[in-house]
Amino acid sequence: MSSPLHVDKPRACPNCSRAKAKCVWLATDEDPEQTCQRCLRNKLACSKPHSLSKRRRGKANQSKVIEQKLDNIMALLSQERNRPIESPSSIPSNDLTPAAIQTSHQDIRSTPLHTPASYPPQDAFISIVPGFQISFSEADQVLQEYMTEMLPQFPFVLLPSLEAYEMYKHKPLLLKTILWVCRPPGPEAYVAFENWLRQHVAYQTVVLMNKSLEIVQALLVFFAWNDIFFFANSKDTSLLQLAIGLLADLGLHKRPSTTNPAFGSIVDDAADLRNDLQPQPGHSSDDRRAALGVYYIASIRCSIFGKLSGVEYTPRLDDCVGQLLQDQEHATDLLLVNLIRIRQIAIKVNDVFGNTGDHPLAEKTSTSVRAIVVASIRNELDTYISSLPEHLQSNHLLRSHCAAVRVRLLEPVNHGNRHDPLEPTHLRCRAMWDCLQSTQALIDAFLSIPIESYSSLTFVSILHLALAIIKALRLLCVEDQAWDLHTAQTMYNLPDILQRLSKLFEEASRVGKPRCGIMTNGRPMLCEYAESYKAIEHWYLSKVGMAHSDLMDSVVGHDGDQYKGFDFWNQLSDLTYGLGP
Questions:
Q1: Pick the residue with more confidence: 326 or 269?
Q2: Zn(2)-C6 fungal-type domain location, by residue (predicted)?
Q3: Whole-structure pTM value
Q4: How confident is the model at residue 506 (pLDDT cuts 50, 70, 90)?
Q5: What is the mean pLDDT of residues 76-83?
């Protein structure tokens, strides 16, 4: 019996083949299968060609083909995984082309940070984005600098190890973000990393649904040492909301165990009925710091830019503060706890006065009621400051935070309208003077920082300085029957302050630290700040003595183009509540 995979199929005779006709063979007793039907009918000589054996593709052959393809794919993957890291001598030049950047952006969706099966040798380079790589030996030095210089400015992300090789194994995203912060590359690679980070975080969290503390920590580092232009232009919104969502997914928004089952999750209730309730894992100190760090960033956006916070100070966060205060595993934990406490007071001010203009009862609220609220919050703030240890009372971060809270609390917009008749107590006048003095205290806190530390400052310090300048500028140019404008301009030497700040930032840009080379609008970022202060000084000197209530509007309408960089300050001013004095 022949194999079913082999079938003899007769071919057409030459006559039918030339005529493109159907050839049907006839079988006779005298001459079996030697004459086709057409040739017999037309009385043509017919000859049967040799038949060909055609092998059909069976299931066994198809399986072998598929197995061969899978073997080829696995061989390619193994070859890619085992490819060695380039040695320092073979590292290409740092030339970065737009095509290379675009290629890296496309590849991030399918390429992991690194392959755990094959770690690079310790004398190799860490490739971050095209044109930006750092050796492991230099990365070790960067981590040391981060712990000594950067962490005191933002104590919410501690490192699990000071060895870059170990961090590359366990937290590569956090390592690369710290390297980008402490060793910023050129402008093109700098922007390329920002795009890469967004794509990588989105792919890991949204597509792969990976939830990890490392992503939250990397985002916190990315936020803290970005410039204020990044926040003023609302480039942080989507990433910050993602970080807030990760807190919920990681269970950092609630206690590890619910004390009141009535307010627990119905999922937990259902699991409890089945006796299948799994014990919730406890939270580490790194978890607590990260949760408080997200609250810290969100609260600053709320109180300075007037944006929605998205993170409430819950009992869970209060537990985190208490546990960190009790353990104090690191020297910066006490600073962290007090930064959170001052942010609580700042949010309280925002809750009381932040929506004053929108509240229907705002105009009916008497000045005396406002004064009672202000006095209560001021007493709380004074009590907080007096309770600080001596070494924290002189900390520039806490000093600037306290002064910023006073500025927000005492803004004239919180204390009546300048066209209203004066009350006998002249509370509005006193509030305006106290607000101006608070701006001076905030600037003094910044001036206490050595210029060598300017490059390691977070956006918070620069933003507080901007708040002081904007509010002082308004108070020194407003006409108000409760306000002695000439005396204020005489006592408060704003041009001298701006000149001093401009010189300090220019000197800081020449210190030679790596972060001094960060470029903004085609110039070093610190120089960009210095030019902005010069622009404000020139504008103030040209307008001093002129009565104009809409301060920033006149700048844009008439003189904004004369002073490069002033448009940003106008934008920053519009983002704050309490625009008019």
A1: 326
A2: 12-48
A3: 0.75
A4: very high
A5: 62
Bridge partners of 524, per DSSP, are 519
- The closest alpha carbon to 165, from 184, 143, 189, belongs to 143
Domain region containing 156: 102-225
Residues 10 and 111 reside in one and the same domain: no
CB 374 within 8 A of CB 414: yes
27 and 115 in one domain?
no
Fill in the amino acid letter for 304.
I
Residue 126 and residue 176 in contact, taking contact as beta carbons nearer than 8 Å: yes
pLDDT at 384 over 90: yes
Confidence (pLDDT) at 399: 97
Residues 6+ away with beta carbon under 8 Å from 114: 120, 168, 172
* Three-class SS of 26-67: ECCCCCCCCEEHHHHHCCCCCCCCCCEEEECCCHHHHHHHHH
Same domain, 136 and 218: yes
Helical segments of 360-426, H only:
367-387, 390-393, 396-410
For residue 553, the model assigns a pLDDT of: 46
Residue 62 covered by a domain: no
- The amino acid that residue 580 corresponds to is G
SS (H, E, C) 181-197: HHCCCCHHHHHHHHHHH
Select the more confidently predicted residue: 18 or 491: 491
Last residue in a domain, options 174, 190, 225: 225
Higher pLDDT among residues 271 and 13, named by residue:
13
Pairwise CA distance, residues 360 & 370, whole Å: 15
Q: For the residues 307-325, what does the mean pLDDT come to?
A: 90
* Integer CA distances (angstroms), 427 to 174, 374, 421, 430, in order: 50, 11, 12, 5
Rounded Cα distance, 157 and 221, in Å: 7
